[in-house]
Amino acid sequence: MNPVLDASALLAYLHQEPGWEEVHRIIGESWIGAVNWCEVVQKLKRKGLVVEKVRSLLDELGLVIAPFSVEQAELAAHLWEKTRQHGLSLADRACLALAMERQARVLTADRVWIELELDIEIRLVR
């Protein structure tokens, strides 16, 4: 299954921060959820970048932006109970829900995720 990127992993790639090389290797086969894409867009706009150009580049590379489905919304809500002690946001849980639904590994820069006891592979990019 194609890997799922958390916003932190995609931002590391876009800004060539530590861990960007790992994302670079799999960007063309990766997915990011629409909720996480919203986080990325917000941070790009704050830096004054042209979102449409970035999205066009990512489209050319093959990154898929997946819609947030009703099933993912329900799964993300159920994850709240399991993850609340770790302080995961709705966007974090939406990312995990997409990965769980697709039975895919997820890449993140958020270290607390490796403490989660979920039935998916979580890989830190740094």
Strand % is 5-15%
CATH class: Alpha Beta
What is the CATH fold-level name?
Answer: Rossmann fold
**Main beta-sheet annotation:** 3 strands, parallel
Radius of gyration: 14 Å
Number of helices: 6
The CATH architecture would be: 3-Layer(aba) Sandwich
Fraction in helix: 40-55%
Number of domains: 1
Strand order of the largest sheet: 1-4-5
Mind sketching the topology for me?
Blueprint: E1 4-5, H1 7-14, H2 20-26, E2 31-33, H3 34-46, H4 51-61, E3 64-66, H5 70-83, H6 90-102, E4 106-108, E5 122-124
Parallel strand pairs: 1-4, 2-3, 4-5
Helix pairs in contact: 1-2, 1-3, 5-6
What this model shows, in words?
There is one protein chain. This protein has one domain: 5'-nuclease (Rossmann fold, 3-Layer(aba) Sandwich). It starts with a strand and ends with a strand. The strands form two sheets. A three-stranded parallel beta sheet has the order 1-4-5. A two-stranded parallel sheet has the order 2-3. The chain has 126 residues and is mainly α. The protein is globular and about 35 Å long. The chain is 52% helix and 11% strand.
List the defining traits of the structure above.
126 residues, mainly alpha, Rossmann fold, 52% helix
Task: Give a quick summary of the entry.
With 126 residues, this protein is mainly alpha-helical. It is built from 6 helices and 5 strands.
